[in-house]
Design brief:
The protein has 8 helices and 8 strands, in the order βαβαββαβββαβαααα. With about 240 residues, the chain is an alpha/beta fold. Helix 1 links the parallel strand 1 and strand 2. The longest helix has 26 residues. The structure holds zinc ion. The site of zinc ion has 6 residues, from loops.
Length: about 240
């Protein structure tokens, strides 16, 4: 049988917040959120899926790569947010691999609106036979792709990641599925995922409490500002009084 085990590696954790942090998130938290989303989605799609960490715990390089090596996975997706003055998504593959999955992931990220930076591999400066990144160097036969979703110190990337991180997380699922020839079922899952949320918005729209159905749908996962709450309560109050 084909190996359909995937391991997801949320970078950093515990005492190591990760350099891809800013005033809106810590890298370790953002990549855990992305990884948890992907864990659920891979499960739904019938993959055998594992994670290097499911909590805010610190993992040293050897501890982390041991988990990956012993996972029995075919692929490891190592999730990160970049920093250091760039813009856009990067995927990084081993110098010993063909980079096909990394390139497919980057292409899907671009498809859903992230800016393209590059897919690349890199050697240690003193050795042409060794990968630069320990996630490639020490993960044995598990093909690891490091995904850098964008730059925490870039304003546009920050905006995009805040509003579209779910889309970016999903694009990785799509790329892995098509790379492995696995069924990718998007629409049904997305429907189930958010239908109950949309129902609430639709109800209040039909009752005349909300006036911009599409606008509210787009902001479905955002907190509601105080002014909106007060206007809604005022509308409901007026309706109850019969004004
Ligand atoms: Zn990182």
């Amino acid at each position: 049988m084909m190996n359909n085990t995937i391991i997801i590696d949320p970078g950093h954790g515990g005492k190591d917040p990760g350099g891809g942090s800013n005033e809106y998130w810590l890298e370790k938290e953002m990549v855990l959120k992305i990884s948890e989303y992907q864990y659920k989605r891979f499960k739904e799609l019938g993959f055998n899926v594992k994670m290097t960490r499911a909590e805010d715990v610190y993992l040293g390089a050897s501890q982390r790569t041991k988990i990956v090596k012993e996972s029995g996975a075919k692929y490891c997706i190592s999730n990160h947010i970049n920093a250091g003055g760039g813009e856009g998504a990067e995927t990084i593959y081993s110098i010993h691999g063909d980079g096909k999955l990394a390139k497919a992931i980057l292409a899907e990220l671009i498809n859903v609106g992230q800016k393209k930076r590059r897919a690349f591999s890199k050697t240690l400066s003193n050795s042409a036979n060794l990968d630069y990144y320990f996630m490639h160097r020490q993960t044995g036969f598990v093909e690891t792709v490091i995904v850098e979703y964008g730059f925490a110190d870039n304003q546009e990337d920050t905006k995009r990641i805040l509003s579209d991180w779910e889309k970016y997380a999903e694009s990785v699922i799509k790329a892995v599925c098509s790379h492995m020839g696995h069924t990718y079922d998007k629409i049904v899952k997305e429907d189930n995922h958010d239908r109950w949320k949309y129902e609430g918005i639709k109800y209040l729209y039909e009752k005349g409490v909300l006036n911009d159905l599409e606008g509210w749908k787009e902001k479905i996962n955002e907190p509601m500002p105080v002014w909106a709450v007060t206007l809604m309560l005022k509308e409901i109050y007026n309706q109850l009084r019969g004004d």
